Amino acid sequence: MTDFIAYxxxxxxxxxARIATVNDDNELRDKVSKLWSKLNNVEISPExxxxxxxxxxxxxxxxxxxxxxxxxxxLEKKIETCADCSEMEKCEKLGMIFANNENAxxxxxxxxx
Length: 113
Description:
mainly alpha; 6 helices; globular
């Protein structure tokens, strides 16, 4: 379902934060918080690992809710996803996502109108 493709093209259905939220899995929340804390060099508590998906109504992680520059840009431009933006393939913010997840760009290309 394309509703679970994030603004940046990541698949929210595959995100462990969403999986932990949907399944109310505190063990997975703990695992994700430790991994994300290490990867981002910032303290992320298990309580912060609650997200239904970045384009889905409901709870979001603090990063996805108000810090993510890609989500903020898409909301400001009032676009469904970055696939609707003419800057998509040359966007520096998206470039970081595409470098770490080859499926993200393809997900967005599949959504182009």
